[in-house]
Structure formats: C-alpha cells, structure tokens
Amino acid sequence: MKIVNPATLATIAELPEDDAASIAAKVTKARAAQPAWAAKPLPDRIAIIRKFEAALLANKDELALTLTREMGKPIKQAHNEIGAMPGRIDFFLDATAAAVADSTVLREAGNGVPKLEETIAFEPIGVVGNVSAWNYPYFVGSNVFVPALLTGNAVVYKPSELAAMTGLAIARLLHEAGVPKDVFAPVIGGGEVGRQLVDQKIDGVFFTGSHATGQRISQQAAARLMKVQLELGGKDPTYVADDADVRGAAESLADGAFYNTGQSCCSVERIYVHRKVADAFIAAFVEVVRGFKIGDPEDPETYIGPLARGAQIGVLEEQVADAVKKGGRLLIGGKRMARAGHYFEPTVLTDVGNDTLVMRQESFGPIIGIQPVADDAEAIRLMNDTDYGLTAGIYTQDRERARTVLRDIDAGSVYWNCCDRVSPRLPWTGRKHSGIGSTLSTLGIRAFVQPKAWHLRGP
C-alpha cells in the first residue's frame, strides 16, 4: 500500500497490507491474550496507559510530522492534536474505576450474612474491532482504544489507510508502554481490510467514518448480533442571532468551519444568520477567511493545507456549481488551486437554500454555506432540516434564548457561543445519520463493558 503526501503527491512510504489470513490470525491471538489482560489489576493497566501518554508527548515532533506528511494536517494543528491528548487520556485514567465498579442495588439483612444481595457487575466485551478515521487519528482512535484497553478488552485496530503510519506509531508506543502485542494488534489496508475485520469473530465493532460505510458495517454485523457503535458524519448548523457579537461570531465560526481544512465531522457546515446582522456578519466572516494562510502544511504559519483525499475536490466542485445554479452567490474561492497537491480554495457561499447540496450533503472540506433567516423559528426549522444530528449551536448574548433554541434542536451536542468543541467529560454522540452510541464521558467507558446481574442468596 502506497502512502502519498497529499501536499506534493510524492510517495513517502510503502506498507504491507494485511489479508484475510493475517487478520484472522491476529483476531485469534487477541482472543487468546484477552483474559490475561483483563485479569491484570486495573491500576497496572492504568500505569501502562500513563506510560503511553508520556511517550506521545516525548515523541510529539516526530509524530506530528508523520501525521502532516501522510494526511496533510497543518503542522501546528498536528502538534495541537497530540498535545491535547493528555486531557483526554487523563479523564479515562481518572474515571474508569468508578465507571465500571460493582454496584449493589439491594441487600437484605440475614443472620450474619446478607439474606439476599443484588449486584450489577461489569465485564469486558472481549475482542473489539476498531475501524478508525484519518482526520483526527489520535483523538478518534484514543476515544476507543484507551477505554477499551483500560476495561480489559483486546483491540484489533485498523487505522485509516490515509493515516496508517500514524496508526503503526500508536501501536509501537502502546507496545513499548507494556500493552502486549496480541492485545493491541494493528491491521493495515483499505476498505477491504476493514470489511474483512468485521467478518471475523470479534465481539464488537467501533467505527468512525462516513454514514454510507457505517450503514454497510451495520448490515454486515447484523447477522452476528455483536455490539456495533458508529461515529458518523454531520452537517453541523449554527445560528447567529440578531443580538450576537458579530465580529466574535465570525472569527469563531470561520475557525470552526475551516480548521483542519474543514475535514471534521463536527466542522461548522451550515450557518444561518438573522437578517438584521447578515450583511455585517458575512463581511466580517469573509474578511477572516481571506486572512487564512494556505500552503505547505509543514510550514508552522499554514492554516489551510491540502485535502487528504483528492477525490473530495470533485465533491466540493459539484456543491459550488449546484449552489450557484440555484441562485447562491459565490463570495470567495470555489475551485481547485493551481498548484501541486489536493488543494481547494477556501470557499464561502451565501443565499443558499436548504435544497442545495452544500447545505444538505457532508462537505468535509474548506467550504461553507450561509443563509439569512427572518427569526429564531426559521433558524430552528432549517437547522433541523437534515438527515444528520451531530452538533448545532447558537451565538447570542441571551442565555435563555440560547437554551430555548437549542432545546428544540435534534443533535447530540449543542453549543452556546462556541463551536467545533469536544470535551472528554461529555458524551460524543450522534442522532439519525450521525451514528449510534457514545464515546467519551462515563458513557463512553461503559460502551466497552457488558453488565452481569448477580443474585446472591445466603443460607
């Protein structure tokens, strides 16, 4: 499998792909190794993951450069992702023991011993298949494999083919920290390798990626009745109300829409702005976007890098053409850049209705549609007019107004005066086409255990 730098289109590595036989062997070894890993005291597993955390920071420069070269993330943003890992890992280290502790829900007194005791215990799922994503491989991957390992599971981990070198680096650091190689086993390859992994005798599959692939995985796993958790896409809307800090909202939302070159499931992808402030907001927003530096992702000053996938340029071109055809106005950008690599101009469209592709289909690139609205009610209606339900937000000076609007939004995460934000203390969860299940928070820890009901009656 060739690893191609999306900024230069040069091949930077070739990696051997797994096949059905090697994947089956790794799953078999993982199943054999999992009971001993689960039997290891939790403080010992915590100590191992803490060593992994330290190794990430100690090797941050090398890891960030690898990530930048294989998927195009600007180097400063690659450093930001790795540098923020302790905040996530520390949450899991601190919260796992309480999240999976036994809970006695009934104890009836007897002669010296309880007459009847009812307890809920939690046990590992077993062998977890993790089909991960390329856009935030450290964040997205660790949301699965860190709590999975801490709760005693073995993990067969398929990094995206666009972040395979990063995936192998993660595996190496986990093994060096003390996770047995059979307990965390990477498999390398494209979509076919992921399909073959889901076909194995695993106990759960945790996937991050597109709705279309998630739907196929769900159908594939249905015959096995194993646990399926899907973290899928979004078409994340935000409403700028007429009392908002227009300049502050423009700066925040431009970053929320274009950070990581717009390649995030929670990137802001639709903006609805009250007509009273629409002109001022759009002018400020365009000014901010014009100031973003586009270029070599290894340059620390670069904010917009190449797209990880060249094929996505065609999707963005189609969205622009469709919006203009239906009456939208192209304010800046709108086309592939005349340079080597998968570069697309930062693009802002306005007066785009919800019937346009740019307001309905996930973009996953540096493009945004902006639509003026008459009032809060119209904003709520248009924000909910989507097959997705990942995040949504509002910018307003009025806390109660924000709560009133956000209560009516069908999304897993909602934001007031912020966007594109993830906290390890809160569940990351989608509705409708945005997925099934939760990562992060105590819910994301319990995703990797299964309950056992104990009925204990004394003599």
Uncertain stretches of 5 or more adjacent residues: none
Q: Would you tell me the structural class of the helices and strands? A: alpha/beta
Shape by Cα distribution: globular
Mean pLDDT across the residues is 97
Number of strands: 22
Rounded Rg? 23 Å
Reported for the largest beta sheet, the result is: 7 strands, mixed
Query: What percentage of the residues does DSSP assign to strands (E)?
Result: 15-25%
Number of helices: 16
Percentage of helical residues?
Answer: 40-55%
| Oligomeric nature of the chains | single chain
N-end to C-end Cα span? 64 Å
**Major sheet: order of its strands?**
12-13-14-11-10-16-17
